[in-house]
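Late entry, written up from scratch paper. The run itself happened at the end of the previous shift, but nothing got recorded in the book at the time, so transcribing now.
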Amino acid sequence: MTVQLAHLIALQAVARHGSFSRAARELRLTQPAVSMQVRQLERTLGLPLLERVGKRAYTTKAGEVLLTHAGRAMRELENGVQLVQQLRGIVAGRIRLGTSASFSIYLLPSALRRFRARYPQTELVVVTGNAPEIARAVVANELDVGIISLPVRERELAVTSLYRDELVAIGPPDRRWPRGRRVKAAELARETLILFEDGATLRRLIDGWFQRGGAAPALPMELGNTEAIKKLVEAGLGLSVTSWFAAKAEVRARKLAAVRLDPPLFRQIGIVLRRDKPRTPVLDAFLATLDDLRRSLE
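Output as recorded:
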């Protein structure tokens, strides 16, 4: 019985995304091509590996067993390829990075661009999600590195500080805050607010700041996307609290107004990976790139 590597890769992608179409986009294939590869693998093994429920695809018991063992084998294969490339003086291989959508938009592009330019034979896979999801995926070795808001609870993770992010209040461009003044929780709570959705790490941090200030926003509008929040604030539908690095371009372009909080509010952004993660040339190169980013942000 011969199992083709491409078929396993297709199964992994569908299982990871729960979707044939998303897997096809990741693999740069058509959706019928991905479906055909999975069907051929199922015919080879004689058992269904995926089942469709509604619009999502889920692994069967056989699919879970296969992916557990195939994942370990493919990681060993990747490590072997990387070591062979190292003998040639080439850094190659794949990095699976998990982070938030806002970090991938506002914080990381320059570092990722430098990494790809410096190591063109590497593959960089970026997955977005919330901090607990990313932390769990790193623990499960589904991701190599996470860049997330701290703290994390998982003891299996080694944590390195990356950036201390200050949060600010933002308003439409015609909002006038006195220069040098800070805004308190009680004052901000009287306004119509547009905040991150309940349960998000950043929202918990913001809620804690209001509670310490003895105030509570009354029924804020909730969204899960920083860009959408900024657009609604710019349109005059309310105020918000967000990262300075996410708002500074619009503030400098006078599309938004910003003011610092009283007391100041910060969140710590960190790099997480498993404590027992094997160090490979491509991982070392990626971590060195993140260290360059950390120094540039100081």
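The first strand starts at residue 50 and ends at 53.
(Scratch paper discarded after transcription.)
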